[in-house]
């Protein structure tokens, strides 16, 4: 089977559809995105040269509402990746039951090699290229890998100038001062925490002292780690693209690690007591550096891929020792790896459920903008928890009813809602 994410997304869709009697028309429609935009984006660089970047916006499906999905800046962005991510958004929005369809965007770029001015020009020029196809009631963008509230602010500003009126609801994940919503930054990590807690409760597992390793210490991984630790889980390993750290007794101070990463740009070697980050402190605690991928195969109860696609493959799936894999990244497990994990009896909590907290709060933000409301942080966090727990229960009971994996169950829940 293929590691191509689009092929995988199609095979997940067809496998779940085989359990239902759906119209052939619906499946045929979901097998193809509604619209594919592929654009060239010329950008004037700081040294006066013009460089042209490649960008995509894929509008997968809008049966349930406006297209909705993130924008990713990464050197490996390509058409099939963005298509897969857009289909997963259609499924995710139906699983979490928000009135959005699925979309996704990406620009093939290493944003770390661009100045802030170059990034802003790239974002604004891309917005102009796709402006006729987006809008608050048509297609709403959000942050994803390497994009954030600042990037969303540039998109909103550029789009608003083009349409001649302020349109905050064309993006979600904005800064709170600019029409964003309280709680959006931490929503995906916090949502994953609620899903994991609910699934553990439903399957009769205890989380006190359960050990966790997390691959990817960005927005999603860092907030998830904080919430898990606060609730009694033991975070023993973290990694980013350059390396990571493992302390079997648990990483006592996540904030210091986060500060160290911010200062040094990398996690490896980042365990500090006081203000000095050095390896000797790790040795005292029995810790060691690990490779980025090693976080997924350590002896832990819960392994969390929270970085990119294809993190668990047929090469490392046999070595996964965790009894639960919580998929916080989109598409982190290849089809072959998924079969291996299922045969080993690993409970895989699928991405379309686990990481849907971000889009749940994006929906609250969009609703707030469209109705000129201001939601309190307490309201947002309460509603998020309710949504995540309800979706977890629905997926779990569907997996029991159809005797299928939680991934197939999530797709079944989504397909039933889409067919309605
Ligand atoms: P981010 O850019 O903030 O962080 C990504 C992290 O992954 C970084 O720490 C990076 O160093 C690390 N990384 C990259 N390659 C790695 C590798 N090979 N091994 C270990 N670490 C690696 O991105 P994010 O917003 O945290 O998104 C992470 C994942 O979660 C993505 O798959 C994204 O699509 C998904 N997701 C994000 C949101 C959201 O609200 N941000 C919502 C749903 C899903």
Name the descriptors.
seven-stranded mixed beta sheet; alpha/beta; five-stranded mixed beta sheet; 420 residues; globular; binds nicotinamide-adenine-dinucleotide; 14 helices
* Count of individual helical segments: 14
What fraction, in percent, of the residue positions are helical? 40-55%
Report the biggest beta sheet as strand number plus sense, adding barrel if it closes. Answer: 7 strands, mixed
Identify every distinct bound molecule in the structure, by name, code or SMILES. Answer: nicotinamide-adenine-dinucleotide
Structural category: alpha/beta
What series of H and E elements makes up the topology?
HHEEEHEHEHHEHEEHEEHEEEHEHHHH
Q: Uncertain runs with pLDDT below 50, 5 residues or more? A: none
Spatial arrangement of strands, main beta sheet: 11-8-7-6-12-13-14
Strand content: 15-25%
């Amino acid at each position: 089977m293929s590691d191509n994410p689009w092929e995988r997304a199609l095979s997940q869709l067809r496998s779940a559809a085989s359990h239902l009697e759906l119209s052939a028309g619906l499946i045929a429609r979901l097998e193809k995105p509604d619209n594919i935009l592929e654009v060239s984006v010329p950008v004037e660089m700081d040294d006066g040269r013009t460089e042209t970047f490649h960008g995509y916006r894929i509008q997968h499906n809008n049966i349930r509402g406006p297209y909705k999905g993130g924008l990713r800046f990464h050197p490996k962005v390509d058409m099939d990746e963005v298509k897969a991510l857009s289909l997963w958004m259609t499924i995710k929005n139906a699983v979490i039951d928000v009135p959005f369809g699925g979309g996704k965007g990406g620009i093939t770029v290493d944003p770390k090699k661009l100045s802030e001015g170059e990034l802003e020009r790239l974002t604004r020029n891309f917005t102009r290229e796709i402006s006729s196809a987006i809008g608050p009631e048509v297609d709403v963008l959000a942050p994803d890998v390497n994009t954030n509230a600042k990037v969303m602010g540039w998109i909103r500003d550029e789009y608003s100038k083009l349409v001649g009126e302020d349109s905050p609801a064309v993006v979600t994940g904005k800064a709170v001062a600019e029409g964003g919503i309280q709680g959006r930054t931490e929503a995906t990590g916090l949502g994953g925490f609620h899903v994991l807690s609910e699934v553990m409760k439903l399957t009769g597992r205890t989380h006190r002292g359960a050990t966790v390793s997390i691959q990817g210490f960005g927005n999603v991984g860092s907030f998830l780690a904080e919430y898990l630790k606060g609730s009694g889980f033991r975070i023993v390993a973290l990694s980013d693209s350059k390396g990571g750290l493992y302390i079997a007794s648990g990483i006592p101070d996540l904030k210091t690690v986060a500060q160290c990463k911010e200062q040094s740009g990398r996690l490896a070697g980042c365990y500090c007591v006081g203000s000095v980050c050095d390896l000797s402190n790790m040795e005292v605690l029995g810790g060691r550096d690990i490779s980025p991928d090693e976080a997924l195969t350590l002896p832990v109860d819960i392994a969390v891929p929270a970085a990119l696609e294809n993190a668990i493959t047929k090469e490392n799936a046999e070595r996964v020792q965790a009894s639960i894999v919580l998929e916080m990244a989109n598409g982190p497990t290849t089809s072959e790896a998924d079969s291996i994990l299922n045969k080993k009896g690993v409970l895989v909590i699928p991405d379309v459920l686990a990481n849907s907290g971000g889009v749940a709060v994006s929906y609250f933000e969009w609703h707030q903008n469209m109705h000129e409301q201001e939601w309190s942080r307490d309201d947002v966090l309460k509603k998020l928890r309710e949504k995540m727990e309800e979706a977890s229960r629905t997926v779990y009971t569907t997996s029991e009813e159809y005797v299928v994996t939680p991934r197939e169950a999530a797709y079944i829940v989504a397909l039933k809602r889409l067919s309605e």
